[in-house]
Amino acid sequence: MAPRRTKVKQQQKSWRGIIAPHITHITNPISDFLEYFVPGESVGSSISVPRRTPFDTPSRLRSEKKLNESLTRGFNVLVADFPRAKMPVFVNNDRAPIKFPYKIRGRRHHTAQPDVLALSPGQTSIRTHADPWRNVAFVIETKLKEDEDPMSAYSAAHEETLNQLSKSARNLLVSQSRLFVFAIGVYGTLSRIFRFDHSGAVCSRAFRYTNIQGRRLLLDFFHRFTHPLHEECQVVGADPTVELVSPHERAAVVKMLRDAGVDHKDSKEASKVYRYGRVRHSDGRDKTYLAYNLEFIDPNLLSRATTVWEAIEVGPNRKPAGHPVIIKDSWRKSDTQRELDQYECIFSSTHAPADLPGIARYCSPAALTDTDGEPPYDGAILYEFSKFWRFVRSTHKNCEILQRRQPSGLHRVAVDSDLTRNKRTHFTAAVARRFNVSRCSLPPDIHLPRRQTTSSPMAQPTPRQMKSRVYTIVQADALQSSEVNKHAWRSEVEGKIVEMDIDIELFLSYFMPSVAEMPPLQAADPFDVPVGGKETDMYKPLCDGLKNLVKDFPKQKRPSFRNNAHDEIKFPFLLCQQDQHATKPDVVASLPGRTFPPRKKDDDHDRWRDISVVFELKNVESEDPMLYCSERNDETLVQLSKSARNILVSQSRLCAFAIGVYGSTARIFRFDHAGAVCTRSFKYGEDNGAVLYEFLWRLVHPTREDCDIVGADPTVRFASANTPEVNRILRKADVEVTSETRKACRWVTIDPAENRRAKKYLVYELLFINPRLFSRATTIWKALELDEDGEPTGTHVVIKESWRQLARDAELLHWKRIRAHVAPHLLPTDMENEQWDQVAEEAFMEVWNAEWRGLAAFSLGADLGEDEELRADVEAPVGHRTWTGVHQCHGAHQWFERSHMRLVSTTIGTPISQFPKTREMIQVLRDAIYGHQLAFEAGVIQRDVSEGNVMSVNGRGFLHDLDYGFNWKATLYALGYEDTIESWEEFARTGKGKPREGVDGRALAAEHAQQAQGTKEKTVPPPRPVINRQGIEEYFVDAVIAERKTAEGKRYLVKWTGYGDEWNSWEPLQNVRGCVAFSHWLSLPREDRKQLSAQHANDAVGMGEPPRGARPNAVTTDVGTADPGKIRDECKQRTKSL
């Protein structure tokens, strides 16, 4: 057995990193803090503040012990005039240890050592009860110096100070069934007030408790705390539905239980549990229960805090009135469904029998509790329970109580629990699941400024957060009023919308590039919008002002504006309409040169197809959502975000704009799939509306002539299924034209940029869409391939569009690796390059489809974001690479940015769930397993095998979607190991692969680390070249370190893996394209690339004959220079998810 001291240290470590991130510093005046977070009666002038300080100055005290004595005396002086029944008595605990309230978890949770204790009103000692925490109202933790304030800086010592407060708060919550508790931190002459609940904590500003103002604040806190607004509570934070049993009532409780026939053994431990709980059933009646035994408790502070009690119903005279029951008490996350609703759904169904084997029965509503006539069973072998939800924001309780009968032979368990049989451990495992609890939004007047996020890219696994819902199981969750929907969208936009602290003119010139000369503004005072009245009264005046602004625009460029007046507009496509509710933008702008068609009843036209910008209005400036965080402000941002999402989805836009109007001020927002940025707040009526005038002019005058507005995709052109040309092509291909076909129709051009001709497609059907805004936004279309004359070739294809994070490898590279791996086995290699290029497309696809490899047949693809970056010097970017992710990390890197990917596959399948026969389903699974093996042998682990990614066609199966693919061969090579299956298997088991010949263990990884640290480079034998399918030697690119322009085009300075700097060489684009290191180079900000390139401007080509470049479809591939530790961690993390 480990020594006691070792156990304590381990328990202390378990608290580290848990509490500090969940404590929010409220910067409002402390009077606001007390009003919002301590809902009690203010002291007013009823009790005067001592004019003379009752505290000794901490600077004259040499120890915390002396400070504690001074504080104890001073606090008692402050409350001396309180009524005796309301007076808290302060006791110097002098860090005496107080154990965890219950033995059931006492061993795992060591004792706390608070400095000063405030006893509950009317109490004079903590020893009058078996549980000392039962008599404590709140605690005071002290430090002698002001710089030990844990909210002023971060260190291990500061975090330990917060942990001390948190442990005491946890013990109070557990002991007294409190809803929330308070603690005071004293740091020299400074003090802070903390409030804890099971989702986190808030703290006040620091104030000097030694001066008159500080003493008044403390007195007001003490008075509010002991004078709660709820009459049934003794102190603020107490649960009005719970009454703790006092020590002198203990004997009566024990007698009552024995008279009721309850087999209960009285003890000091049992007396800690005794409490009455009042529960309101669904029939509206209140019932009272006496809890007399603690079955289970989860003592974690930031958790569901599940507690399971044995209890018995009692009548008004506190006499037994029912059978023993089990009550499960926990704190539900607001984004999870109540278990009570699940029970009601099961038992209220007209098809449900009166008794359901395998499901626990609960007695709320009472009509479901009649179990007479059931066969007897041994109740000792089964712990039955159900959940008792207590909602965080109020004192109301919704609960479920499981009636427990001695007779029955059926095993009944809770809906979401594991089977609980004869072992207590099974019961514990079933109720001990913990979930992270996110912080509740602050009240509207609590100003918590919005901040940019600073998370490092991909340093840890992607955190599990609730995002906006793609599909819903319960239809009500799709409604705008649904709490589930609201919380999901608030999580989606949190930290993703950043205010740009730059001049608005600079914002417009950067985020809305335009080369058209803007004519002078002619409108005079166009806006006469009422402020402060009804929001709806602002709509028409704003529309009139906007029309006045653009009246001098060329007709073909002039947008029109409509007062939408909260008219519902459905989600663009029927495919997700049941999961995505309709929205109601206030004012909408049309596309340039168009007007809004009159709306007809039951019209299925996609109205988002005609909208260029939305305006969301609020009647006062204080409702600007970028001023501070609150639930209401988050909902305002969600309104803007949903409209932007709908425009992006409907029109295949690269980015979308929205304008928020708040009284007389406004902000311009720009959304893409990585995040959003907005301008400073500005007076939109000033200078005759000059800012909005410039915004609208730039919007309809993009730099590219083939775009109608800024944010349009030049490779997509909309087509109407009603036009003769499109109608003829669709009929020729036997495509049925429906309303959804008309919504989907668009021309798409794909330029593979690999010396191959661009191809054109006509999209006619939406197969799948991920409607989340800040995501990969995967969209899958069915399309017709067209020849050079625009006629259908007869080939139907699938086009997949997605937005790849720059931190991840492109799916296009994974398909090329697989193709390069398979090609030598399918086609002859004794060809010239010209012959190979001629047959590579037709012959490869023909053989691939004939032999059926269990993978989708990928035929064409483009990384549009990377292509745009390569052409940035000669062609203005339009947004195929996002621009907002970099601002979420203060410009430190671009890993949060996303690149627009487009892939074409000739394999069109149906989901495996739609199999007609079991035999076919088995064959589909077999084929997918074979496809997975083939990809693995090529070096790619798919990592996302799911129902949607295993499909069937003509009775055969295939695997697709390599977005989450992982190149295990490149990882092993970068770490100095052999890139063989045997080496990978060993690496997956032990973390160490088989060292490559000539490389000592992890010499290559060590070399990377030394280079990163600036130490002397370690010389290792050069690796053997890879022989590609045409017999040409190819080498690994370690990193691209510079670029420069030449007469033949751009050249890139390449560092070759395993070679010194003297072998660095300038390579053309075709030699490095497709390399991961090259993608890493392009992911750097342009200014950084310019600075790095300037350092190598005069570098000549390296010595000797440089190695050949790594071709795009080489058999193996490369990785950029990276920290080997991170590579290993990422490798392990990804392997765990298989």
Automatic annotation (TrEMBL):
Taxonomy, superkingdom: Eukaryota
Glycoprotein found in the keyword field: no
Gene Ontology CC terms, in alphabetical order: nucleus
Domain Chromo: 1035-1075
Nucleus found in the keyword field: yes
InterPro entries: Chromo-like_dom_sf, Chromo/chromo_shadow_dom, Chromo_domain, Chromodomain_CS, Pkinase_fungal
Chain spans, region Disordered: 446-465, 1006-1025, 1092-1138
Location in or out of the cell: Nucleus
Keyword annotations from UniProtKB, A to Z: Nucleus
UniProt xrefs under PROSITE patterns: CHROMO_1, CHROMO_2
Record's compositionally biased regions (Basic and acidic residues): 1125-1138
Compositional bias (Polar residues): 451-465
GO annotation terms (biological process): chromatin remodeling
Name under which the protein is recorded: Chromo domain-containing protein
Organism: Rhodofomes roseus
